[in-house]
Amino acid sequence: MKQLMRTGKRTRILLFILLFAVTMLLTLAIGGTQRIKASELREEREVYISIQIHFGDTLCSIAQEYPGASDNTADSMKKIAELNQICYDETIRAGQYLLVPVILEDRSGLH
C-alpha cells in the first residue's frame, strides 16, 4: 500500500513538472520572447523655444514649421497664441519674439 502511495505521489510530482514545463513553453511561444529595439526606447517631450519673427511670417506659417505635439495646424496656432498671450487672429510683427513648442526625443530610455 505504501509503495502504491509513493508511486502516486511521484506521478503527481512528475505531472506537475510536466504541466509547468508546458505552461512555460506556451508562454514563450505566445509572446514572451518579444524584444524591444533600442530605437523604440524613446520618450518624446514638448519643450518651448523662443523664435524671432521675420517679415512675411504668419501665425499659420509658424504653426506649420513648429507643430509641437499636434498634427493639426489650427491646434498648433491656438497653442502658440496661448503660450504668448495673444489672440488667435492677432497680427504678429517682424522682430517680435514668440514661444513655440518643439518635441525633444530621448532615445536612450533613461531619464
Describe the structure.
This protein has 111 residues and is of the alpha+beta class. It has helices spanning 2-32, 59-65, 73-83, and strands spanning 43-52, 97-106. The chain has two domains: 1-34; 41-106, Roll (Membrane-bound Lytic Murein Transglycosylase D, Chain A), CATH 3.10.350. Strands 1-2 form a two-stranded antiparallel sheet. Helix 2 packs across helix 3 (73-83). The longest helix is centred in the N-terminal third of the chain and has 31 residues, at 2-32. The chain is rod-shaped, with a radius of gyration of 30 Å. The termini are far apart.
Q: What are the defining features of this structure?
A:
2 strands; Membrane-bound Lytic Murein Transglycosylase D, Chain A; 3 helices; two-stranded antiparallel ribbon; 111 residues; alpha+beta; 2 domains
| Main structural class | alpha+beta
Shape: rod-shaped
Total number of helical segments? Answer: 3
> Would you state the CATH class of the largest domain?
Alpha Beta
Mean pLDDT: 79
State Rg.
30 Å
> What's the helical proportion of residues?
40-55%
| Uncertain spans | none
User: End-to-end span in angstroms?
Assistant: 64 Å
CATH topology of the largest domain: Membrane-bound Lytic Murein Transglycosylase D, Chain A
Count of DSSP strands: 2
CATH-level-4 superfamily name of the largest domain: LysM domain
Question: What topology does this entry show?
Answer:
Layout: H1 2-32, E1 43-52, H2 59-65, H3 73-83, E2 97-106
Helix pairs in contact: 2-3
